């Protein structure tokens, strides 16, 4: 298996699934060869604090602090702060641990002092010993809003407060038209020798990134190998509401549906071994197909998938 | 022992000592007969959050949450949030517990939504089941600043960060000239049938309250009995840096020095039994003297001192 010998790998990611592959990539590539760009469409103010769920999941995953049971939050965290906030009359439907709160307090404090979200993220991740760059997709607010049969909901209202139960009719990425890619994201788009779309929700995690002006076009016209890993395996999302949302939006709940979503910005879709039978249909959509095990449980799984994805990129590069 | 049968008791208080007597008063008087006005000159922003140390000590004391070992904070609180903030590069010299943080988060959030500090305090204390009104001295910022041999320090920098070690030359209550008594404080000043200056630091806890325009004059010309309890017992502060500061400012470190400080706004100074020999000197300053046990350890001590102070007020009223 040959990995790309040089060049920057740009990974686009949402929360838990994306963080797993990003962890694998970070175990293989040195910091200067990996740019992990993370969705901030799920960011929301809770108790006056700026919470960035996907940035936090990525940060906790790469720092080793993450809770492997839940996928979010810090392992062993308590909920004393949240319980007290509840006693003090706050609406506490969004779970935030006591140590997790420190992240939101510090982020909010630094932002209020005039630092950009990129600068704050860079500082906080460095403080936790993370050497690989974790990059917010934008320093401007972009907010994923879902139009549902229960009204208009923010991503967290939909996903956490309403347990993803409402039927989704459409979604909007509010603020995206006025946003720009963060400086490091823009630089990584220019420099990328490979682009990896991690196994994250195409509509709720990846689409907000693509909605930032110039991003979709830059990827569509990019000369580097562009590989996406399907978050749908065996006709269902590995995790989260991607499958349910695809169904409600009339998409095929399968790797084929994912391929259609990524048409034009993806040279090869990585399908899980159990979806090997979909490879031809994916190729018929104009997207290449690569079949390999994609379920990541152990850290070895994460590294192995990352190695295979990078090897695929190297092969694609060679065949050009 | 007769207590005042009717009328409002206005208590002026700082942190731990003041909260002890206020607790005693709250066990005797119904909520509509007690107004506890608290120093906010020690308020400070930590990590972007509005921390009100004296309001919090009062709130935790009256709600039963307080830590009897330290006098401040919440009993059994953890420091996970603070430790994580430290890991994230924050300067964490000011101790804040994880549940304590909830108070500051909620206060800051409500303030940022446009509520006044009075309104926020009223809401937070009600949420904790406190029926007696805890009233910030002002809704405008007043900040106690100390000129010391180690430079200009905020109250918390002096007291906590520098462990009250620098020599104090003078102090200033920044913002006081532009501040007003909070609405409930102003109303209590008008309605008070007795005024109790709790055993708090005269310079750091009571003086900031008196520095608000109109407050000293209103008390100086008030017709209600005005009683102060000396925080200096046996030539030393019961707690905190009051004795050291009085010495550095050239004041007598004794109940006599306290009497001089309160001349003109106090009809009777309550001296601890061990300071009975100072009664004549206090009277010579034009301040009446009453001798009784003032050290409050148990809750019974607090109630007993409150009863005696209220009985003294009733007697003073009768003798007019």
Q: Summary?
A:
Chain A has 320 residues and is an alpha/beta fold.
Structural account:
2 copies of one chain form a homodimer. In chain A, β6 (143-148) and β7 form a beta hairpin. Chain A has a 7-stranded parallel beta sheet with strand order 5-2-1-9-10-13-14, sandwiched between helices. A 3-stranded antiparallel beta sheet of chain A has the order 7-6-8. A two-stranded antiparallel ribbon of chain A has the order 3-4. In chain A, α1 runs parallel beside α2 (53-63). The first copy, chain A, has 13 helices and 14 strands. The mean pLDDT of chain A is 95. Chain A is an alpha/beta fold. Helices cover 41% and strands 19% of the residues of chain A. The interface between A and B is medium-sized, with 30 and 30 residues.
Helix share bin of chain A: 40-55%
- Radius of gyration of chain A, in angstroms, nearest whole number: 19 Å
User: First CA to last CA of chain A: what distance?
Assistant: 18 Å
Unreliable segments of 5+ consecutive residues of chain A: none
Q: Reading side by side through the largest sheet of chain A, how are the strands ordered?
A: 5-2-1-9-10-13-14
Overall pLDDT level of chain A: 95
Instruction: Give the beta-strand count of chain A.
Output: 14
Largest interface: A-B, 30 and 30 residues
What kind of sheet is the major sheet of chain A? 7 strands, parallel
The quaternary state of the protein chains shown equals: homodimer
Which structural class do the helices and strands of chain A define? alpha/beta
What is the percentage of strand-forming residues of chain A? 15-25%
Query: Helical element count of chain A?
Result: 13
Shape of chain A: globular
What's the helix-strand series of chain A? EHEEEHHHHEEEHEHEHHEEEHHEHEH
């Amino acid at each position: 298996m040959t990995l790309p010998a040089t060049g920057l790998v740009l990974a686009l990611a949402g929360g838990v699934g994306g963080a797993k592959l990003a962890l694998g990539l970070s175990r293989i590539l040195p910091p200067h060869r990996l740019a992990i760009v993370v969705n901030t469409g799920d960011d929301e103010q809770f108790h006056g604090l700026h919470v960035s769920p996907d940035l936090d999941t990525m940060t906790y995953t790469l720092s080793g602090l993450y809770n492997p049971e839940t996928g979010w939050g810090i392992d062993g965290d308590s909920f004393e702060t949240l319980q007290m906030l509840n006693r003090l009359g706050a609406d506490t439907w969004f779970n935030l641990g006591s140590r997790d709160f420190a992240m939101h307090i510090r982020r909010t404090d630094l932002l209020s002092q005039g630092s950009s979200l990129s600068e704050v993220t860079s500082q906080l991740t460095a403080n936790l010993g993370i050497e690989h760059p974790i990059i917010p997709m934008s320093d401007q607010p972009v907010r994923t809003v879902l139009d549902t049969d229960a009204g208009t909901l923010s991503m967290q209202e939909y996903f956490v407060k309403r347990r993803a139960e409402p039927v989704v009719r459409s979604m909007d990425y509010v603020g995206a038209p006025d946003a720009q890619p963060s400086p490091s994201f823009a630089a990584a788009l220019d420099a990328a020798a490979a682009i990896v779309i991690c196994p994250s929700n195409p509509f709720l995690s990846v689409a907000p990134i693509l909605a930032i002006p110039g991003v979709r076009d830059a990827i569509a016209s990019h000369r580097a190998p562009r590989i996406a890993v399907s978050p749908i395996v065996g006709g269902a999302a590995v995790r989260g509401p991607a499958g349910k949302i695809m169904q409600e939006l009339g998409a095929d709940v399968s790797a084929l549906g994912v391929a259609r979503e990524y048409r034009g910005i993806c040279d090869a879709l990585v399908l899980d071994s159990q979806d090997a039978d979909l490879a031809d249909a994916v190729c018929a959509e104009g997207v290449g197909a690569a079949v390999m095990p994609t379920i990541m449980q152990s850290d070895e799984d994460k590294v192995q998938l990352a190695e295979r994805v990078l090897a695929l990129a190297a092969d694609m590069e060679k065949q050009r």
